[in-house]
Design brief:
The chain has helices at residues 2-29, 38-56, 69-97, 102-109, 112-123, 130-148, 161-185, 191-213, 224-237, 239-249, 254-260, 263-276, 282-300. With 309 residues, it is mainly α.
Length: 309
């Protein structure tokens, strides 16, 4: 019993630490790559961790032939939505705001459980309830006021906040979709194998994308600071944070994990204030609290929670 409690404490700490690392990434690290093309950045933040994983996980290639066509397809969808589209969208959103409103972009991404639950109802035949409609509607409404306050969103060419918000929502949808596809893939594939090939597939997809778009020449524009940020992401907020998160997830209950994950938006708010001087208005603070509380209530209504970021 005592050992179980210690593991639970370690697990909660691990999830909280991983969430703080993701908050650090969204506010401090990724925006420092602003001088580079979005697609090139996404390729690099997957390629470098994958190359590093090859040092220790080369044996995973032997599992490639053991993966069924169906599981291979689910892994490919995880890579497409979670690795490619989701990361492209959130990086684009962060670049659009140019170090402004970073907290809002990160918080909107936390709406992903809504999309995960909705998609699970379609693919996994999980039933949607009135409880879901209530809390999802409240979270989305709070997300609107978090972004725009009491003002109407502007759609003219001079406004980037609306575009950034839409890209954040696209990221939330993509990451939420990836969660559902991961549930299906992880029924027969280990977490280590799934993570290895998720990064590998995403790196391959983005390499093709960069080559076709003619952005491979961006490698000439990488500064010494960019290289440092890429390495830090690879070792901490990238694959490193995912391994830390999953170590913790195995040790704690779903609701504990959900509460610990709140260190992600909380740390984003703190980091954005410390490093960028950004302050939320009273309306935005209230909206952020309501949105986070609604997401907690959504997760409380779920019997299980299994997530691959």
């Amino acid at each position: 019993m005592l050992n179980d409690k210690r593991l639970a404490i370690k697990g909660a700490f691990a999830i909280s630490f991983a969430a703080i690392l993701w908050g650090l990434d969204g506010v401090i690290l990724t925006p420092r790559l602003y001088n580079l093309d979005v697609g090139f950045v996404v390729m690099m933040v997957h390629m470098i961790p994958f190359l590093l994983m090859n040092i220790f996980l080369r044996h995973e290639y032997a599992n490639l032939l053991k993966i069924s066509p169906a599981d291979f397809g689910w892994l490919a969808l995880v890579s497409l939505f979670g690795g490619t589209i989701g990361t492209l969208a959130i990086v684009k959103a962060l670049f659009l705001v140019e170090f402004k409103h970073l907290t809002i972009v990160v918080l909107l991404q936390k709406l992903q459980p809504i999309f995960a639950i909705a998609l699970a109802a379609i693919i996994l035949k999980e039933q949607l309830t009135k409880r879901f409609a209530l809390w999802a509607g409240l979270a989305i409404t709070a997300g609107y006021f978090l972004t725009f306050g009491f003002q109407s969103p502007s759609i003219d060419g001079g406004s980037v906040m609306l575009a950034a918000a839409l890209f954040s929502l696209l990221a939330a949808f993509s990451f939420g979709s990836s969660t559902v596809f991961s549930k299906l893939a992880l029924k027969n594939v280990s977490f280590g194998t799934a993570t290895f090939f998720r990064y590998g597939f995403t790196a391959a997809i983005m390499l093709a994308f960069v080559l076709i778009s003619g952005k491979i020449s961006e490698i000439q524009n990488i500064t010494s600071e960019n290289w440092l940020v890429f390495i830090i992401i690879a070792l901490t907020t990238g694959s490193g944070a995912i391994y830390i998160f999953y170590f913790g997830l195995r040790q704690v209950k779903a609701i504990v994990a959900t509460v610990c994950e709140l260190f992600f938006p909380i740390s984003a708010i703190i980091f954005d204030y410390i490093f960028n001087g950004t302050r939320l208005s009273v309306v935005q603070w209230i909206s952020a609290v309501i949105m986070i509380f609604s997401i907690i209530m959504l997760n409380l209504g779920k019997k299980k929670q299994q997530k691959l970021a």
